[in-house]
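Notes, Module 5: Reading structure tokens.

Key idea: the token line is not a picture. It is a compressed description, and you learn to read it the same way you learned to read a sequence, by spotting repeated patterns. We will look at two proteins. The first is printed below with its tokens.
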Amino acid sequence: MNLRVPPAVERLADRLHPKLTPFERVRERHTLVVKRIEADTWQRGGGGVRERLRRILDETKPFPVRIDGVDYFADPPDGRGPVVYLAVESEGIRQLHRRLCREFPVVDDLEGENYVPHVTLARGGSVADAEQVAGTEIDAVEWTAERALTWDREHREAVDRFRLRG
């Protein structure tokens, strides 16, 4: 389950793009993952998963989100590192993540206490390059999260769209 990011985040990522060229993979689409719901959960739960997710999101009020820095994971638990990302601050995201973790299985090493809200910019390369990008000063981007979506990793597309109603 992801949150949509506003165009200002896309513009920020575009401005940082020249600094990301040393990395193996640079993200072209940017989302903010709040909770991973693995394929086997969808397969076992069918339409019930979607309805459980809809219930939680219908009960969630829109909330503020702020991006105010660039950071990196030197050795991420999943995939090639380092991972350079936009750092996200939002108590609303953390609360929603905890609610979703009570409803759906937690992905070890990535969620629960290990969850770090972020928008991935690039991965693979050297830690020295990641440190250099992480030192970049940026203007903060703030918005209110009002929409969420489910993302199909295999087909790389949004599947369901939800409004936060609260």
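Here is the second protein, with the sequence above and the tokens below, as before.
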Amino acid sequence: MKLDPIDLKIVAALQRDGRMTKLKLAETVALSPAACWERLRRMEEAGVIRGYTAIVDLEPDAPRTTVIVEISLKSHQQADFRRFEEAVAKEPAIVACDATGGGIDYIMRLVTPDIDSYQRLIDRLLESAIGIERYYTYVVTKSVPLIEKHSLPPA
């Protein structure tokens, strides 16, 4: 689906505030509510807008450490990838895992109470038979909000 500048304004507005009413959205992008609703419905049906979510922080004062980990596997057969992916999918601390091309096989994002908890998790993964050859750890020192960066400039 090709998005025109008005569609992009709708997407940007929803990225800033996914809970805004359809009337407020129409006002924000300078469309009639009916025209705005039709564009929104079309983008949802086409899969451009796949859903609406809430960012939830159940324990805002709880200590936590975010870690990015690059993973390389020992072997690169389909069964090796499947075994690794099935194992990491069971770990609640792993909040994202992306397969990548190039020098590494996966990039994972983990959230743990502290570095010690992270290291115990990695040690457990290394001791399991999921084929990790090497890993590189990057501790996140600050998360940079990108909402405005993802918003598109006015047309």
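Summary for the second protein:
- The chain has six helices and four strands.
- The beta strands are 65-73, 94-99, 106-112, 132-139.
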